[in-house]
Fold:
Amino acid sequence: MHDRRRLTADLMLLAAALAWGSTFVPCKIATAHVGPLVFNGLRFLMGAFFVFVWTARRLRGLARREVGGGILAGTVLFVAAALQQAGLEFTTAGKAGFITGLYVVLVPFFMTVMRQWPGWNAWIASALAATGLFLLSGEGQLTLAPGDGMVLAAAALYAVHVILIGRLVQQADPLRLSLIQYIACGTLNLGFGLTTEPVSESALLPIWWTFLYTAFFSIVVGYTFQSLAQRYAPPTDAAVILSLESVFAAVFGGLWLGERLSLLQVIGSGLMLAGMVLAQVRVRWPGERVASPAEVPLSNPKVCRKRVNGWPTNHS
Structure:
């Protein structure tokens, strides 16, 4: 049962990466017509509406921790998405996808700082993914653009978001949590956007499809699948799989914009896929004991590495 749930979670994370990768081009198109705050505000609120229709019957059990956790996650997502969208105005869609994907390395680093110890395979998988991202970004040559710093800051916040969601979904309903998260993120974006960015109906009409497309695929599919999957997938593994959005971004860039992958970029994509496979390998540190079923119930099988009384062990 645990393996089946984990496989389902991994497939949902892969679907989320595919959905996110397909939205870089529409987001790039939107930046030429509307400010990042208004764009994110409208698409997150549209996504919240879709999720509300999906989860309306489940809202009766809405708990205070789900509201608080959703607002916190939505605030982190608000700042991250705003920085990423703003950075897209000054850099390429492909490079933005690469830099954003660097959270795959930042997740195990942040977890180590928090005294949660990922297995050695998670570090190697993250390194493979980061190397693949570097090659995929532009044939192994990375030149900095003015918007890259903002996108890098967004990557750090996305790493925090992955870890935060991994914790929150263990004690909250993922769909209710997602709904509150989208409402909080959308409201913050739109509230600040309407006071700081020019908005006109003539500017929004030509890009109406980008709102619908990104609201459904990026918000409803991407972030909702992430929340559902992270109940059973550790943050480090989730980050490696989600980083494949950069591969999909390059693929969709080729389909929509006529961009073609070089040999080095294909090798980079292969390294990222290898990292995803390695992240699924179960390893233990020397001297580590295996947690008993009583310590890791099937209803909450997400396993994080911690040190208990000085010894590394598995802890749910």
